[in-house]
Amino acid sequence: MPKVDRIRQTGTFASIEEATASLVADGDAALVERGVPRLLLLRCPCGCGDNLVLNLDRRSGPAWRLYRRGIALTVYPSYWRDTKCESHFILWNGRILWCDWSDNDSFWERSNDMEDRVLARLPFEYVNYEVVADQLDEIPWTVLQACHALVRRKVAVAHPDRRTGQFKRLP
Ligand SMILES: [Zn+2]
User: Fold this and answer.
1) Which residues of 67-98 are buried (b: 16+ CB within 10 A; e: fewer)?
2) pTM score, two decimals?
3) pLDDT tens digits, residue range 39-55?
4) How far is the CA of 48 from the centre of ligand 1 (A)?
């Protein structure tokens, strides 16, 4: 089965049963919402046929953060399944970025406006991009890509240890 690169939203449901029943094709996604978003159910976009369950409610344990821009869904951080199909992907603005792909740059849509806003918030000391995203009320993925673009523009640098996710502005 080929992997899909985009989700299709089937709707918002009050119960897990209704949400699950709405999933018919790989990449179908259903929200379970009761007052607040509770779960995102996703027919695995790898094609394995399993339904993935992403908790969105911090009150019931570790949770993904859900962002809605218009109708497009983003979750943060990435989804990494450590069993069965071992899918590892980023869901950003309704699109799936497979983390085993080597060329990621063409996936992200660049925005000079976003880069300028991130640069204006970036301190001269190292800071994690998630902190900047929270300050700007923006999606962490978007801020991370803006940070990479600022590094390429040589107005910012990334921490030598990439795992820290830290960046700083150059004087
Ligand atoms: Zn799968």
Assistant:
1) beeeeebbbbeebeeeeeeebebbbbbbbbbb
2) 0.90
3) 999 999 999 999 999 99
4) 4
For 26-83, the pLDDT digits (tens) are 999 999 999 999 999 999 999 999 999 999 999 999 999 999 988 899 999 999 999 9
What three-state secondary structure class fits 57?
coil
Q: Are strands 28-34 and 8-13 parallel, antiparallel or unpaired?
A: parallel
Cα 3 to ligand 1 centre (Å): 9
| CA 85 – ligand 1 centroid, Å | 5
CA of 88 to the centre of ligand 1 (A): 9
Backbone angles phi, psi at 94, to 5 degrees: 80, 0
